[in-house]
Amino acid sequence: MNDNGSVRYKVAEAARLAGVSASTLRLWESQGLVVPGRSETGHRQYSADDVARLKRISWYRVERGLNPAAIREALESEEPSADGAEASQDTGLGRKLRSLRHASGKTLDQVAGDIGVTSSTLSTLERTSQGVSFKTLHDLAEYYGTTVSRLSGEESGEVPALVRAGEWRRWPETTPGVAVQLLAEGRRMMDCHRFVLAPGAASEGAYRHEGEEFMHVLSGRLELVLDGDQFFDLGPGDSLYFESRRDHSWRNRHDGETVLLWINTPPTF
């Protein structure tokens, strides 16, 4: 139990150690100041590093009188690269987004306002690479002049053209229930992906970009909507080809997983 990565505190314990109330911890979580882990039963769990962060938040609030937005910025300045021992591949996308924001000279509140999300949502994404819809991820990539594929590390140099079954590299799972697996690596003229959608998974809004795209349903059922009024109910074996500049949104209509092949050309998503 001496390893900081293995210690886990419940809400009441973490609040006591930080010198605040449990309701304050929940408030700070809603403001994107801290993101605790979750047990298998869904209960909040705080690591020793989380508790240390809570104490810093309390200090900034009491001693410096900072508001939540200023506290987030102050915490970021303490750990500008997030490249410590706890950093993992799963946080790479969040680090890239934070670097892009810093390079643009924007604050969390400015970008969140421009994109139409809360500052706490954006803060969580930058620190954990999780917690946003597929549409929001696309909007952020477009905002910074890049693509989701590049943010996800897809264009990482020359790699073999052969990808064996079951050995697909995956995007960071930014959106709950949406797993994107790479069927072709490196700089290509096409984005070739295998999507695995959990029951109820959806884009949570329409998005568009340049290019054309093709999808083929391998299993399950997908509803795709073009331009807000053209509905397609796709089942196993069905295919659809459309221009990417048309607004498109989607959701898994199956009570199990839906798996599909999805190709974009050129790679603009």
Give a quick precis of the structure.
GO terms for molecular function: DNA binding; DNA-binding transcription factor activity; isomerase activity. The chain has 269 residues and is of the alpha+beta class. The protein has helices at 11-18, 22-30, 48-62, 68-78, 92-104, 108-115, 119-128, 134-143, 148-151, and strands at 37-38, 44-45, 178-182, 191-197, 212-219, 222-226, 230-234, 239-243, 248-252, 258-265.
Could you describe the 3D structure shown?
This protein is α+β, with helices and mostly antiparallel strands and 269 residues long. The protein has three domains: 9-77, Multidrug-efflux Transporter Regulator, Chain: A, Domain 2, CATH 1.10.1660; 92-150, Orthogonal Bundle (434 Repressor (Amino-terminal Domain)); 166-265, Jelly Rolls (Sandwich), CATH 2.60.120. Helices cover 33% and strands 19% of the residues. It has a five-stranded antiparallel β-sheet, with no helix packed on it. The chain has a three-stranded antiparallel β-sheet with strand order 7-6-9, with no helix packed on it. The protein has a two-stranded antiparallel sheet with strand order 1-2. The longest helix has 15 residues, at 48-62. It is elongated and about 60 Å long. It comes from Rhizobium esperanzae.
